[in-house]
Amino acid sequence: MLKQKIQQLAYDFYGETIANRRYIHQHPELSFQEENTARFISQKLDEWHIQHETGLGGHGIIGLIGKPVANKKCIALRADMDALPIIETNTHEFVSKNPGVMHACGHDAHTSMLLTAARILKQIEDQLEGQIKLIFQPAEEKLPGGALGIIKAGGLKNPDVQRIVGQHVFPGLDAGFVGFRSGAYMASADEITIRIKGKGGHAAMPNQINDTVLTAAQIIVNLQQVVSRFAPPVVPTVLSFGRVIADGIFNIIPDEVLIQGTLRTFDEAWRTSAKTHIRRIAENTASAANMKAVVLIEDGYPFVMNDDHATQLAKNAAIAYLGAEKVIDLEQRMTAEDFAWYSQQIPATFYRIGTANAAKEINSNLHTSTFDIDEESLLTGSGLMAWIAVEQLKHK
Ligand code: NI
Fold first, then answer.
1. Cα–Cα distance, 361 to 371 (Å, whole number)
2. 352: domain CATH number?
3. Ligand 1 centroid to 107 CA: how many Å?
4. What's the gap in Å between 296 CA and the centre of ligand 1?
5. Could you confirm whether 82 is annotated as catalytic?
6. Among 42, 278, 288, 298, which one has the highest count of C-beta atoms within 10 angstroms of its own C-beta?
7. For residue 357, what pLDDT is reported?
8. Residues 104 and 173 in one domain
9. In angstroms, what is the span from residue 337 Cα to ligand 1's centroid?
10. Would the CA dihedral through 132, 176, 186, 168 be positive or negative?
C-alpha cells in the first residue's frame, strides 16, 4: 500500500526533516534575499536527483517529479521560504544566527516538510499517476508577494498545474492535528496611508492654524462607518489603524499627521468600493476642516479561495492518513497569505498543520520572538503532503 509506504518513508526521513528545519531556522533570510536558503534547497534536490530550476521570481525554485502521462494531471505543492525582521528570544540550541532575522512564521518548517515530501515522492515516482511540481517560493511576507513572481515566471505552466496545495503551521492547533476549510479562507489585505496636511503652529492659537491632530482623530472615527454602514453585512470586513504619527509636542500642532492601517475582506467588488469610501470619507473630513487628506492605498494580497473539490480531496486524504479524529474544520481568518495569488488562478487548497504542544509550553503566536513548533508536526506534515499529492493525482 502506497499510504503505508509514505508513512514509513516520512518516519525514515524524520531525523533529516528536523535537521533541515533547524538548519533553515538558524540561517533565516528576509523576503527577496533567500539566497542561502535557495542554495540549500537546490543542493538537497540535486542530492536526490530531482530536476529543478532556480532563480524564479527572485530566489524561487521549481522542481518536477514524475513523467508526463497522457490525460494525467500535474499537482503543485508549495512552501514559502522567507523569514521576518524579528529578534529571536528563544533559547533552544538552533536559534537564529542572523541577528534581527527570525523564522517566526514557520516557513523553515514549510520548506523542510516540502523537501521531505519531495524526497518521498521521488522514491515512489514510478507509481505516480501524473506529475508533481514543487514550488519553493520566496518572499511570502512582503508585497507584492513572491507568489506573483512565481506565476509571472510561468510557474503554473509547462507542465500546466491543475491544482495547487499549500500548508501552514498553526499554533492554534496541537501537533498531530490538521485543519481544512472550503471556500474563502483568508482575507485580502490592503495597506492604507493617509496624510493630513495643514498649517500647524502654536497650540494656544487654534483659530489661527489647522488642527491636523483633531482632523486625524475625526478621520479615524468617521472611517468606522466603512465597516459598520457601507460594508455588506454578510461580508466579513476589518479596517484597523495601527500607526498614527503626529510629531508635534505639548503646545505645537504639526503641519502633517500620518495614519496607516489595513483593510481586510473577502469580496473583490466590495474591496474595490471600500477603497472609494475610505478615500471619500478621509478627503471630505479633511476638507470640512479646511485641510487636505492625501490617501494612498497599496493593494496587497487577494483573499485565499479554497476550491471545494481540491479541499475535500485533501481532507479525505488526511482522514485516511491520520484518522478522522485528527482532522478538524477551520474557521475563516482575517489574516492574509500570498498563496491567495495561486488560488485566484487555479483550483487550490491551503490547510493548517497543528504545531502547538501545551505540555512542552510551545504555544507562542506566529510573528512573535518566541514562536516555535513542536517538531513532531514535521512528521505529520511531510508525509501528509506527499500523500495528499498522490491522492490529488489519482482523483479527477
Ligand atoms: Ni507564513
1. 11
2. 3.40.630.10
3. 6
4. 26
5. yes
6. 278
7. 97
8. yes
9. 7
10. negative
Place of cell 460594508: 231
Confidence of residue 246 (pLDDT cuts 50, 70, 90): very high
Measured in Å, residue 290 CA sits from the centre of ligand 1 at 43
pLDDT at position 121 is 98
Gap from CA of 172 to ligand 1 centroid (Å): 14
Distance from the alpha carbon of residue 138 to the mean position of ligand 1, in angstroms: 11
Strands (DSSP E) along the chain, which ranges? 51-56, 60-65, 73-80, 130-137, 163-174, 178-180, 183-186, 188-197, 201-202, 237-245, 252-253, 256-265, 292-298, 304-306, 327-329, 348-356
Inter-CA distances, 18 with 109, 115, 116, Å = 8, 11, 10
State phi, psi for 130 to the nearest 5 degrees.
Answer: 150, -155
Integer CA distances (angstroms), 306 to 148, 164, 382, in order: 18, 10, 21
From the list 63, 181, 82, 73, the residue with the least C-alpha distance to 122 is: 63
- Looking at the chain, the whole-number percentage of residues with pLDDT higher than 70 is 100
Active site residue 329: no
What pLDDT is attached to residue 168? 98
Domain count, the chain: 2
Domain holding 324, by residue range, is: 2-186+303-394
61 plus 49 within the same structural domain:
yes
Q: If you measure from the C-alpha of residue 105 to the centroid of ligand 1, how many angstroms do you get, rounded to a whole number? A: 5
Give the type of residue at 125.
Answer: E
Q: What does pTM read for this prediction?
A: 0.94
Alpha carbon of residue 171 to chain centroid: 14
Q: Which residues on adjacent β-strands are paired with residue 197?
A: 256, 292
| Selected catalytic residue, list 82, 108, 174, 375 | 82
Q: In angstroms, rounded to a whole number, what is the distance separating the alpha carbons of residues 10 and 123?
A: 11
Q: Does 50 have pLDDT greater than 90?
A: yes
pLDDT digits 0-9 by tens, 301-329: 999 999 999 999 999 999 999 999 999 99
Annotated catalytic residue: which of 80, 88, 108, 140? 140
Mean pLDDT, the chain, whole residue set: 97
Angle at CA 352, nearest 5°, toward 351 and 358? 170
